[in-house]
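Please predict the structure of the following assembly.
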Amino acid sequence: MEISMRESWTVLHGMLFGAAFLLAFAGGFADLYSLKPEWVTVPGLQERLGRMKIGLWVMALVAWATVFTGTFIVYPWYRARPPEGATDLANFPRYLLLASENTAEWHRFGMEWKEHVGWMAPIASTVVAYAVTYYGPVLARKANERRALIIFFIVAFLAAAAAGLFGAFINKIAPIR
Amino acid sequence: MTDRVVDMDKPNGPVAAVMLAGGIGIAAIGVVTTLSAASESFAQLMAWNAAVGPLTGKALTSTAVFFIAWLVLHLLYRGKEVNFNRIFMISMMLVFIGLLGTFPPFFELFAAE
């Protein structure tokens, strides 16, 4: 049972950072949605806000870690150019996908979308983390602001989900070894 | 009780600032992605690192745009009450620009041959 250094980074990027962000979304969303004065007591609000602030900042940091490891560590291995005349493209995922019309769209659409849209997730989640930290308990009484933050949070989730989904599929078809 | 009163007085400016900056940063990703597709010379300009290619510049430029916009807007809106709904709508339009600009079937319309 072995795992290469490249595979370890891919796991760290997608399975640990990326998946952790997506899993944490459900909890953050539930907390934001139910942060209504009629639904929470004052002690409950304070306990929840402490947890939310930590959780949302951790999510934002994890989202930044995901895009930085993905872009600057894993992606260069994906787009590495094979030597002239190479016939075995197993270690060159981008060129392996493009070599066949059956798989080329995984790069042309999947990877091209994933590598860009993923960067929206850390920005949007930083917005939410800062706003919740700034307002604190007041946010429970600010329905408009809370609704706006929920939408930003959903944008972060959808961006990360699109990037994560295509990342998983592409790594299945043309894995980084 | 005093804390509650003070908290309720918190102006919405700093939150509007980060939200608008978020929209600007996200729109920036879409704009630089489409520009890179449309112009090979722009794409080369974004290729700050040979191994990563143009994605280096696209990612780092958008990130810098977000943080700089946040800093500037924060200084402008600090301590102020602003029209939050208007700022939010503008932010959503910017997010839409970002989503559109990063969607391959859209930016490939401008692809340089």
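Confidence is low (pLDDT under 50) at residues 1-6 of chain B. Chain B touches chain A through 39 residues (CB under 8 Å).
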